[in-house]
Fold these 3 entries.
Entry 1:
Amino acid sequence: MAEIDHRQIDPRLEESEERYRAVIENASDMIQSVRPDGTFEFVNKAWLSTLGYAPEEVANLIVWDVIHPDEYDHCGPYFERAVQGEPIGYMQTTFVTRDKRSIPVEGNVTSRFLGDKVVATHGFFRDVTERNRAQELEARNVQLEREHQARYLEKMAALGKLSAGLAHELNNPAAAIQRASAGLGESLTQRDAAVRLLAEADPGDIGWRELAALLQEIDTSNRGDDAHDPLETSNREMAVEEWLDDHDVEDGWRLAPALVGAGVDDARLERLSDCIPTQSLGTALGWITETLAIHEAVDIIVRSSRRISELVASVKGYSYMDRATAQVVDIHEGVDSTLIILGHRLRDVKVTKDFQRDLPMVQVFGNTLNQVWTNILDNAIDATDGTGTISIRTRRDEDAIVVEIEDNGHGIPPEDLACIFEPFFTTKPQGAGTGLGLDTAWRIVSEEHGGTIVAESEPGRTTFRVSIPIESGAGSSTGVEGDT
Ligand SMILES: Nc1ncnc2c1ncn2[C@@H]1O[C@H](COP(=O)(O)OP(=O)(O)OP(=O)(O)O)[C@@H](O)[C@H]1O
Ligand SMILES: [Mg+2]
């Protein structure tokens, strides 16, 4: 124990004092006895070794030399109270070591009296650096675990949304193919029957040629172009139906819409009737309409299967997302794939694209950028209640490619604008948003690609601007293939 006061000790108390001295000296807590004027009466070994002072230096210190200056205001009242004789059951503060390191401590203080006068305050303190560090670490781990869990859930939710959307999107063409192929079988049977009847009726060379010519015309005319005025269509159908009735063609009401749909009007029928015997007219027209139905079914099957292939290609392009490989891509392809994948949510949204298709390719990390487009578009769709306008623009800005996604939704209030990229910030009802969409986008853009992502907003106009360096160095040191 550092002796500071060499008072004369009563010999009768010496043994008892020795005992207490040994206890105090070997205690692991820092123990200090401080006089009311702030000087030290004694300190123990733990105190000296923790604060880095030699025993002889203590005589020149006052208590405020070992308390961090930031803590003076906090400790002053405690010291006053202790000097008044009030015990301090628990306190926390920060000591400073001889080499100016801060040490967080906790402890308690009691007072020693001589008569009714306080002669010293006794403080017992513990260094809580390690404990604080462990607590901080634990809190950080809990936070990390929570973020990890939430990101995982966000990914699963995104996957869920994606597959639900895709299932929906694939269902339409698949159902169309099914319907068309069912109708195809029936039309083939009926056309075979019509061919037999027609062959029996024998429309003659001129008749066959005229029928072939009509089919040819129909094939090259705008079949399926149903942009006609419905009133006009209805008038034409009536005229055709009347014509058919006048020429004793059965089922005129059934044939008329198909013929008008194929661009055949009563004038054209009149010309046909010049080359076909009247009694074969019904059979010939039946043959024509069944042929048309077959063409139409085949057309639906071709278009629907093309749509399915397109969707599958988009998924392939899109779902590359977690692959940690650097690749050189055309940003527009990613945006287009994402738009197809989000097709089910964009049904009532007007999307305008102003793409500079000749921009250089960029080197990116996996296809994670598609997640960026998805998250921004997802928010834009939400902000416009799925019925607004979203404009997507691309351009070059020096050594970066800029993609701007603007929506005409409700906008982001200025007080929220500063927080939107923070993890878990959401203004959506519980269950509707986790608040990780933009945090994920920010990480992908800035951490993985060295780019920037910023938002501007006013009611009716919100723009997210993503800038990706052309040579982002994402995942590789092999350089970019340059302008292609
Ligand atoms: N285009 C936008 N228009 C209006 N507000 C937006 C827009 N984009 C983002 N926000 C605001 O930013 C918040 C954070 O967006 P973020 O995508 O990070 O999370 P979220 O959409 O709420 O949830 P999550 O994307 O995880 O499902 C949103 O809750 C919304 O308030
Ligand atoms: Mg979102």
Entry 2:
Amino acid sequence: MPESRTVARADIARKARLTPVTPRGPETYDAGMRTPPGPPPARNPLQLIRYVREISKDPIAFVGRRFDAYGDLYYAPLGKTKLYVTRHPDHIAEVLLGQATKFGKTEEGRAAERLRRFLGQGLLNSNGDLWRRQRSAINPGLSRRQIATYADTVIDSTEATLDGWRAGARIDVSRAMMALTLRAVTRALFDHDVRGETDEVAGAMTAFRRATGATSLLPEWLPFGPSRHAADALAAVDRIVYGLIDGRLAQDRDALAARGDLLSQLTLPMRDTPAEAMSRTLLRDELLTLFLAGHDTTSHALTWALYLVSTHPEVEASLHAEVDALGRAPTFEDLEALPLTGQILDEAMRLYPPASVVSRWAFEDAEVGGYPIPAGSEVLIWLYWTHHDARWFPDPGAFRPERFAPGAPTLPKCAYLPFGAGARQCVGKHFALMEAKLVLASVARRFSLRVVPDHVVARDFAVTLAPRGGMPMIATAR
Ligand code: HEM
């Protein structure tokens, strides 16, 4: 490399180190554009890399420090993206409810492009008419009424998992919940047992986390950039998904109509009215979205709930009393009789929201917190920090399921939103709550869990909030 370039790089590196990170006023970025306070933008590639490295280490703490420094809404442009970051319930309500028609899913930038590479035009990514059509096609299969029909499958899968747990054995509860929720969602929604294929789905999930996590901001050629092997992982999981679709399409029409699972309901119009039905590729995008969104989140919610119960013996004793009062394994009809089980899950998803951040793209000029948000800006809603705000949740770090008990103080709108809010609220919410309640109650009926003594529990945030290094626990039979 010519000497002058080496010197230039060293110079850039020195400047990157020396640039002070101090709050800048609105005028810093764009004359005439009124913006909330925020850190100075990265001014060169090295500064950007340093910034990404810092985020990658602990994105949640990084953002928390920024809220401490700049308040509820800060401005942090990233490359060409005008990025606004908020934690305040009023701002969230403005974006997700009041001005929802002005915002949609991000269509620009590297992270959006990578998300699309995995999930195509699936529900999580799409906008406008396509989203509306797809959401109405999928909604009925995940409605409150429909999910009752899936409960037995969830219970069967759970009992089969628990039958494999040996008292005194070390179990990675995070892995166990991942395998269980994957099996439950695929059996319930696609009438397919994924047991032989969990490695392929886990591989796709890992690649997905890498490709859409903090390092996704970096170019692919960097050695610590996002996985370059994502294509293989994706091809493996595509084989499963297209196999399922083609299997259904090959079925006799009446046999297909008689099947109650969501996949059959979505495939039927492809047989009956192919001109109006969704394409095979779009159905693949929706199935992959439901595969990934439908198990990873629920599995983390359960793992964190089991961990929190294990570290709060008084809550554990009350939970045991609640499930023991049923006198048998919990069923769908028992859900109403398990209020504490539900409150534990609510509180676990407050402390560890599986989807900790939600992003929106402004398609039109909007206003949030009194600041103009120009069309083409991105708004990040850090609901993790909304859930950890002492203004809405006193002593926010404490695990207190009673916060969600009847008679507890009412929360401001959008102060608690593990499933998002508004029209794009999680389509799988009822399924997830039904499943998580049945699984938590079933585990509590049969086992008491404790984290293995030398394991340090820590969070690992990349798209979803997982426990770093799993959750090794010892199970004691009850
Ligand atoms: C505890 C479990 C779950 C949590 C915490 C969760 C969380 C969320 C959140 C916060 C959103 C909104 C994202 C946004 O506004 O940008 C969302 C959307 C979505 N979730 Fe979930 N989810 C869970 C379970 C599920 C399940 C079980 C399924 C499928 C069976 C699912 C499928 C989806 C889909 C397809 C969307 C996109 C909906 C749309 O944009 O119309 N999720 N989820």
Entry 3:
Amino acid sequence: MLTFTITPAEVQDIDSLLALEKRVFIAADGLLSKRSFRYHLGSKNILLVARQNCPTKPVIGYLLVFVRTQSARLYSLAIHPDFQRHGVARSLYTHASAILKSKNIHKLSLELRPSNTAAFKFYQSLGFEKKTTRPNYYGDGENALCLSLNARVCPLPYSST
Ligand SMILES: CC(C)(COP(=O)(O)OP(=O)(O)OC[C@H]1O[C@@H](n2cnc3c(N)ncnc32)[C@H](O)[C@@H]1OP(=O)(O)O)[C@@H](O)C(=O)NCCC(=O)NCCS
């Protein structure tokens, strides 16, 4: 069984985050840069990392949520392919949801590629629903599916809070 910890990202995680970003996404997805990661570290947004139970090991997954006044946008979520299907994404999401709940934010939205069936199934398993489509959203012309979730209507199935 994979054991891992979830913590807020720190400045020393940035190189590891950049490597993960390049491993998981393609340029047309709009890769986050060193500057963007650095910006989000010092912002009100939620940037969490997962790593195996050893502080010197590289990041195996991360989640970035943009926090607004009454809603939030799950901007990015990536798990290293060697560590997928071990509940890492679910755990990152659960931690972020607890933070949003503490801020009284219950509405969460996100975009993803219709071709990304793994991510679609993941978000569906959490209760996200398809709302609309954004044409020509990604750099290579693929549309985006827009999903949203109201945590008041659909409480977290996995949350311990
Ligand atoms: C989508 C992604 C984040 C899922 O991460 P993960 O850590 O493997 O997901 P989890 O192990 O927490 O999965 C939780 C549940 O989601 C669903 N799920 C996750 N990956 C799935 C897959 N490949 N196929 C079908 N269902 C899947 C399952 O219901 C799973 O529960 P189960 O394993 O008990 O069946 C990961 O595949 C990933 O990083 N993909 C590339 C980047 C990406 O697409 N990011 C999202 C778009 S921004």
